[in-house]
Amino acid sequence: MMETNIEPRFRIFDVLQAEDYEQIVFCQDQASGLKAIIAIHDTTLGPALGGLRMWNYDSEEAALTDVLRLAKGMTYKNAAAGLNLGGGKAVIIGNAKTDKSEALFRAFGRYVQSLSGRYITAEDVNTSVADMDFIHMETDYVTGVSPAFGSSGNPSPVTAYGVYRGMKAAAKWKFGSDSLAGKTIAVQGVGNVAYNLCRHLHEEGAHLVVTDINEEALKRAETDFGATVVKPDEIYAVECDIFAPCALGAVINDKTIPQLKAKIVAGAANNQLAEDRHGDVLEEQGILYAPDFVINAGGVINVADELEGYNRERAMKKVELIYDNMMRVFEIAERDGVPTHVAAEKMAEERIAMMSRSRSQFLKVEKSLLGGR
Ligand SMILES: NC(=O)c1ccc[n+]([C@@H]2O[C@H](COP(=O)([O-])OP(=O)(O)OC[C@H]3O[C@@H](n4cnc5c(N)ncnc54)[C@H](O)[C@@H]3O)[C@@H](O)[C@H]2O)c1
Ligand SMILES: CC(C)C[C@H](N)C(=O)O
What we know:
Layout: H1 12-18, E1 23-29, E2 34-42, E3 48-49, E4 52-55, H2 60-80, E5 86-93, H3 102-114, E6 119-120, H4 129-136, H5 156-175, E7 184-188, H6 192-204, E8 207-211, H7 215-225, E9 228-229, E10 242-245, E11 264-265, H8 277-284, E12 288-289, H9 292-295, H10 298-304, H11 312-320, H12 322-336, H13 340-358
Parallel strand pairs: 3-5, 3-6, 4-5, 7-8, 7-10, 8-9, 10-11, 11-12
Antiparallel strand pairs: 1-2, 2-5
Organism: Exiguobacterium alkaliphilum
Pfam families: ELFV_dehydrog, ELFV_dehydrog_N
InterPro entries: Aminoacid_DH-like_N_sf, Glu/Leu/Phe/Val/Trp_DH, Glu/Leu/Phe/Val/Trp_DH_C, Glu/Leu/Phe/Val/Trp_DH_dimer, Glu/Phe/Leu/Val/Trp_DH_bac/arc, NAD(P)-bd_dom_sf
């Protein structure tokens, strides 16, 4: 028998136990070149819903670390948003410009189907409605599919609307008024979500300062919204009222916080704090942080509505409530004397604990959370 000599880089069950992950699925298909990982963090509230990211990771370990971190984030996002959904996420290891194919996404769809609804997928960085349509050929456990199938389509404009609502709540808390007219807002990254966010902000009369590494995206923001363009490393020090991270994670860190002039950090990016302690530092410096997983929940709220038979009006009403949810986080933070990121985690954890207790009673037949699937 051939011996395998795999160096154990870390002990996988120690990693899973540390944050209480339920399951990891490694998906391999030679014919299509699929190498994917699905991570399910917690299904107390319901099936795990979270997007599929495609990224050319430097190593398999980096892919695993990313999918685990993102899956846990979805547990908190879905719980805080009041959804009856758990947290999970998936990554495909590959180059989104050169490696996409029908076969690849269909192979992934078959793995999702094999989980019988424990994990439901959707778009994330570098995956599109067209990719979801291929996945949909193999499984019903996919959202963000084309409107032609009665689905919700691209979640980004809805995420943007939620971020806009959350930003207004933060302005109300910090400045005493939720009007953004005349406010200067520095936006990092003007991609799918932030372009739509900038449209709302421009329509309300905010001044926009933007940065991106994509020249075309910058030109579009300059032409459509009269935005001022700065270089990527200049965005943190811009004189502004609000800093909106809408590109990458971990941008709130030891190097960037001392540069910030903003009084509020509120944007779309996932995992904005490099470490939890950076949320404490923002608080100490009098900068109000709108926790990312609360403010950027619009996309998942929108795709989750598909599970009940998609209704745009109903979905947008739920997204509006990000304003109230954000206010609740600020109130909890003030009441308990904790930074806002701690208050948001508490809000999510309390809901999971409450439902865990109330759903522990025996029912011969439980209401199916996937009735529409
Ligand atoms: N799309 C959604 O519905 C959704 C939902 C929740 C959270 N998010 C998060 O919001 C963020 C943006 O998502 P998106 O869908 O708009 O992605 P996107 O890829 O369309 O946009 C990101 C933009 O950031 C730019 N960028 C990359 N590196 C940069 C850098 N160093 N400096 C400045 N700009 C840089 C890119 O060129 C791109 O224009 C991501 O972190 C994503 O995880 C998205
Ligand atoms: C389900 C998706 C719309 C989730 C989205 N990619 C997010 O990070 O919230």
